[in-house]
Amino acid sequence: xxxxILIVDDNADIRNIINELIIDAGYKTRLAANYNQALTEIDxxxxxxxxxxxxxxKGDNDGIELLSHIKTKNNDIPxxxxxxxxxxxxxxxxxxxxxxxxxxxxxxxxxxLNFVSRAVENFNLKKENKEYESKLFSSYDLIGNSKNILNIxxxxxxxxxxxSRVLVNGPSGSGKELVARKIHKNSNRxxxxxIVLNGAxxxxxxxxxxxxxxxxxxxxxxYGALEKANKxxxxxxxxxxxxxxxxxxILRVLTDQKFKRVNGNSDIVVDVRLICSASKDLKNxxxxxxxxxxxxxxxxxxxxxIEPLSQRISDIPLLxxxxxxKISENYNIIQLEIDENDSNIINHNWKGNVxxxxxxxxxxxxxxxETKEKISNIIKESLKSTNFNDHGVENSLxxxxxxxxxxxxKEYLTIQLKKFNGNISKTANFVGMERSALHRKLKGLxxxxxx
Length: 451
Hints:
Structural class: alpha/beta
Number of helices: 20
Shape: elongated
Helix content: 40-55%
Strand content: 5-15%
Largest sheet: 5 strands, parallel
Number of strands: 14
Distance between the termini: 55 Å
CATH superfamily of the largest domain: P-loop containing nucleotide triphosphate hydrolases
Number of domains: 4
C-alpha cells in the first residue's frame, strides 16, 4: 500500500510542483492551501508523512503549530518543514518541535524526494515494530489448567460483550494487562483503540495532562488518554498509585461522562470503557486513606483476581511449553527443550510471576545453549535457588531433625499438590505413596486438601 503524503503550502505553484513530484515518485497525496484546511485534513485522517510550509495565512509559525498538533496525535509521523524565510533559528525551532527534516525554498527536488523516501521508510519501520509488538502481546494467551486461570478465562468470555467497568487484581507480572487486552479483543470495541495509562510510571505533575490533555496557548491541543481511547478501552494500570486529588477528578468523569482539558473551557464527551488494575489491596488502601471508597465502588463493577504463580504451580509446565514455542519462533531457533520438572523451576518462589518465567525462557533463547545440561545450568544460575528457599534451609539447621523433616514434608507435599492441581491420585502416584496413605499424611501434617 502506497504511503500518503500531506502537502501544505499557501503558494499554489509550489504546492502543485511538490504534488506532481510526489505522485511521480509513486506516493498518494492530499493537499491543503491554508492553516484551517490543513487542520481539517489532519483531524480527518493522519497522513503517513507531512510536508508543511512554515508561514501560512494565520501567522508566522503556522507550520510549527501544525507540526505540534500532528505530534500530539501520533509522535511517529515524520514531518518535513519547508520555508522561504529560512534562518538557523527557524531550523532549530522546527527540529526541537520534532520535525524530521528542514528544507529551504527554493529547494532541490532530488533532495526533497530523498527526505520523503527516508521519512516513509522511518514511519513504516516504526509502524511495523509497533504492529509486531502489539501482535506479539495480543497473541499471548492465558495459559494454565489451574482453577484460577480456567475461572478467569470463563469470566472474560462473560464480561467482554458487556460494557461493565472491570477491576483486575494481581501481583506484579501476573498478567493483568493481558487480561485487560483479552477483554478488549473479545468486546464489540475490538477495532477501536486500546490505551494504557500506568499510574505508577507517571510524573506526579503530569497526571491531569496525561488523562485529560491540554489546550495550549498557541491554540494546539495535546490529547489525553481519555480522548485517545474514545470508542475503545482505557486501562488505568496500578490505579492505586493515582493521587487522591486526581482520583476525585476520575470519579467526576465517571459520574458526569464528560471532562475539560487542562486550560480548556469546553466539555469533552467521550465513549470509553474503563478497566483498572492494581497490585495493592485497594480495600486496605481505603482503610489507610490512600484510595477513595466511592471511586473503588465505581471501578469495581466486576472483579477479576489473578493468583500468584507460586499458588498455581500446575500452570508452570504448560507455561514453559507455551513460552518455549512462542519465543523459539520469535528468535527463529529450534524449540527449546526445557525440563518442566526441573527442581530449580518447581521450587522457585516466582516473585516476578509469569513475567519472570517468560524472561527466564527468553534469556535461554538468547544464549542458545546446545545441551539440556547447559539449559539446566542457566536456569540454576538465573534463579539461584537452593531447595525451597535459602531462609528455609537456614531455619531447618536450627531445629531438631523430626521438626525439620516435618517442615520439609509439608512444603514438599504442598508443592506437589499444587503441581497436580489438587489431584490426590496423581500426587500419590508421583510421590510413590498409596492414595490412602497420602490422605493420612496430609491430615497429620495439617495440609488442607483441595479439589
